[in-house]
Structures are given as structure tokens and as C-alpha cells.
Specification:
about 260 residues, mainly beta, Immunoglobulin-like, 1 helix, 20 strands
């Protein structure tokens, strides 16, 4: 037993020390919101702001297949300059569910954040707003070990066409009060899905004004407040605003209200 412990203890201690040293890593989808004309192409990136060494980046995304019809994944900018072979692949696992990865083949090579890990290009179809949500994300260390606690901070969204003409952005699923409002408004939902979420504020032309809230929902009732300011802290002008709540695995919840100053 003593001999067995002498042989296995260093390995166990090494694994424990690596796990303790591997801090949680957050990645994000960038841009969090964009507008693309019907029939055109666009791009969205998986990015980390953290200094993490990796050999492999992998993610599975879910989109509205009627709005985003095809998606192709390639290695992000952090893989530029890697001298070893990079194996890249993307495929549609099921309707609207896309899997992509980039793997460095060669034990002498690695890359690291911060920066773009994966680059997705998509083509657009029908007009509307498609959430882009992460089903699963994985990063592997230069030693080929799965890095624990890798999460995506919140869903993103792609709007195809003019929001004022998109039936999908008719008020649906979000309660809004008061309406009209000046300057603050509260938005609420009775049955929000658990997981990462983001509440976007768009102007009447579909341009993003602010991210009113971003975080993780526990599921069930939830309420959010927008105080009538853009992301820079400037007062938004009077007008009609659209609110889009993006949650994991469910359709966008939307509301529309008027800011009157």
C-alpha cells in the first residue's frame, strides 16, 4: 500500500493543483446584437477577455433556422501564427443547432487568449430576430485537459431586416409598466427560463441603444428596470423603444413602449 501511495500521490496532487489553478473562464458572443439585411452574410465571434492558454476551442450554438440558414465556423484570430496544423470543422447537428471547433494538432504548439477563439459566418433568410445561444462550450488546455467552468456570459441576437416591419417584434411575452414612461420602465416575465440572459433595448429603427440587463436567471418570475439611458449613460430621447429578452433555449420575449420626456 505504501508503494502504491508513493507512485500515485504525485499524480493525484498534480491533478488537484491543476484543477485548483484553473480558474473559471468566461467567453462571450460578439457582437451581442447586430442588424443584417435579408439574403446577406454576417459574422459572430466567440471571444474571451481572459489570459487562458488553450489547444482546443469548441462550441455548439442554437439559432432560428428560418432566420439564420447556414453557419460556418473557422479558427479565431488567436490561432493566427500557430505553426502546427489546425483541424477545423463545423456541422449542423440538427435543425438550427450548429457545432464547430478548432484543434491544434501538435504537442509543441498552443495559443492563448485574450482574443477571438472561434469565428462564425452565417447567411440570412427570413426577416426577424434570431437568438444565438450556447448549448455547450468547451476549452482544452495545451495538455489536452478539459478546462472546468467555461461559460458563455449571455445569449446574442441577430436581427434580419427592419425591426419596424418584423412581426416577430410585436409585443409578446414581456409585461411593461408604466407605458408611456419617463424615464424609467419596469419589464417583467412570469416564466423566464433558467440560465444566461440578456435584455436589449432597441430604438424604432432596430438599432441597439443599451443592454438593460445581463446575467443569469434562476428561472420563474423576473423583473428588470431600464432607466432611459444608453450604454454610455446618456439620456435616450423621447420615442418608441423595443425590448428584447434573450434567454437560453427559448424564443425572444419582446415588448414595445414609449419614452416621453
Amino acid at each position: 500500500m505504501t508503494t502504491l501511495l508513493r507512485r500515485t500521490l504525485p499524480v493525484l496532487l498534480g491533478c488537484l493543483l491543476w484543477a485548483a489553478a484553473a480558474a473559471a473562464v468566461t467567453v462571450r458572443l460578439d457582437p451581442s446584437f447586430q442588424t443584417v439585411d435579408p439574403g446577406m452574410t454576417g459574422a459572430i465571434s466567440m471571444v474571451t477577455d481572459e489570459a487562458v492558454a488553450i489547444r482546443t476551442a469548441e462550441i455548439t450554438l442554437e439559432v432560428d433556422p428560418a432566420i439564420l440558414t447556414t453557419m460556418t465556423c473557422t479558427p479565431g484570430a488567436v490561432f493566427d501564427g500557430v505553426s502546427c496544423f489546425i483541424w477545423e470543422e463545423s456541422e449542423e447537428l440538427s435543425t438550427g443547432v450548429w457545432h464547430g471547433f478548432a484543434v491544434i494538432i501538435g504537442s509543441t504548439c498552443q495559443t492563448a487568449g485574450p482574443g477571438e477563439l472561434l469565428h462564425w459566418e452565417f447567411t440570412t433568410g427570413a426577416e426577424g430576430v434570431s437568438p444565438v445561444t450556447s448549448v455547450e462550450v468547451k476549452l482544452y488546455s495545451p495538455d489536452g485537459l478539459l478546462i472546468p467552468d467555461v461559460t458563455v456570459d449571455a445569449p446574442a441576437a441577430v436581427q434580419v431586416g427592419d425591426v419596424s416591419d418584423v412581426p416577430a417584434l410585436a409585443a409578446a411575452g414581456l409585461a411593461l409598466a408604466p407605458n408611456p414612461f419617463n424615464p424609467a420602465v419596469t419589464l417583467s416575465v412570469d416564466d423566464a427560463a433558467a440560465g444566461p440572459a440578456r435584455l436589449l433595448v432597441l430604438d424604432a429603427r432596430g438599432r441597439r441603444v443599451a443592454t438593460a440587463w445581463s446575467g443569469t436567471l434562476s428561472g420563474g418570475p423576473a423583473a428588470f428596470t431600464w432607466r432611459g439611458q444608453d450604454d454610455g449613460g446618456r439620456d435616450a430621447p423621447s420615442g418608441t423603444y423595443h425590448f428584447v429578452l434573450l434567454t437560453h433555449g427559448s424564443a425572444p420575449r419582446t415588448a414595445r413602449g414609449a419614452l416621453v420626456r
